[in-house]
Amino acid sequence: MPEYIDFRGRKVEITFPLERIISLNPSITETLFLIGIGDSIKGVSAFCRRPPEAESVRKIGSYSTYNENIVDEISPELILTVSGYQDSLTEKLSSKYRIFQLELPSTPFGILDMVNRIGVVTGKIKESQELQRRMIKELFPLNTRKRAYLEIDLGGPVTFGSESYITSTLNFLGLETPYDSTPSEWLKPDYDLIAGFDPEIIFMEGKMFRGMNREDAINMLNDTPMRETSAFRNGQIFTTPGKLDFFAHHGPDFFFSVIPWLRSCLISGNKEHINSK
């Protein structure tokens, strides 16, 4: 039986074809469907909503919990998780089930690598390579230099440092953030520090399943030092579309939806700024 080494250095025996997979990470779930192994997914987390077909797969838990009776009933040949926020969950599951843990990406290139690794451990190498080719077409820098700030409601305001794929992607597209040099994946924002940085453009993402509209974002920032920033004064505040996680999702849709949306915001933002002079 072939052995594969996961993020934690554990040797995991996997045989193909796989018929019973549990994916507890939305990005992994999306990738599995896009490389053509969706029919083998028998269980997912409650947050796995991409693609639409994932909605009908049996829900066995959340990011950090699972129903052991359902998992036993499925009798999975492989369970897939991601590092970081699923470490404790992975530890619990690994005592009883065959687990393969993937690394949480810290750059957009890490997302591409994760897609490749998923293809390798599921026997869908060529399919994952084709998906990578489609994704990488969306990743090209823009001829822009702007100061930017991005915030997500994860049960409270959260922003991102140098260890996050979000910051790395913004930097790649020509955007500087107030936490580019902060060695952290995520952190609680300091509005005084950010206002001193004076972002020219602000991106806001609402809570999963709730979303956020532009008016709500403006009202939320209005009573903070962010009101004094160039972005606030010039109306350069953008809220992410829909009610699902957007920047917070690090699957293929990050390339197919988030990056093109970012480019459109920067282009339309430039036009609005020019027209306002």
At the fourth level of CATH, the homologous superfamily of the largest domain is Nitrogenase molybdenum iron protein domain
Report the biggest beta sheet as strand number plus sense, adding barrel if it closes: 6 strands, mixed
Q: What's the total helix number?
A: 10
Distance between the termini: 67 Å
Into which percent range does the helicity of residues fall?
Answer: 25-40%
CATH topology tier name of the largest domain? Rossmann fold
- Strand tally: 13
CATH architecture field of the largest domain: 3-Layer(aba) Sandwich
Rg, rounded, reads 20 Å
Order of helices and strands: EEEHEEHEHEHHEEHEEHEHHEH
Percentage of residues in DSSP E strands: 15-25%
What low-confidence regions span 5 or more consecutive residues with pLDDT below 50?
A: 270-277
Output the structural class: alpha/beta
Describe the structure.
This protein is α/β, with parallel strands linked by helices and 277 residues long. The chain folds into 2 domains: 134 residues, 3-Layer(aba) Sandwich (Rossmann fold), CATH 3.40.50; 130 residues, Nitrogenase molybdenum iron protein domain (Rossmann fold, 3-Layer(aba) Sandwich). The protein is built from 10 helices and 13 strands. The strands form 3 sheets. Strands 8, 9, 10, 11, 12 and 13 form a 6-stranded mixed beta sheet that branches. The protein has a 5-stranded parallel beta sheet with strand order 5-4-3-6-7, sandwiched between helices. A two-stranded antiparallel ribbon has the order 1-2. A hairpin with a 3-residue loop joins strand 8 and strand 9. The longest helix has 23 residues. The protein is elongated and about 60 Å long. It starts with a strand and ends with a helix. The C terminus is likely disordered.
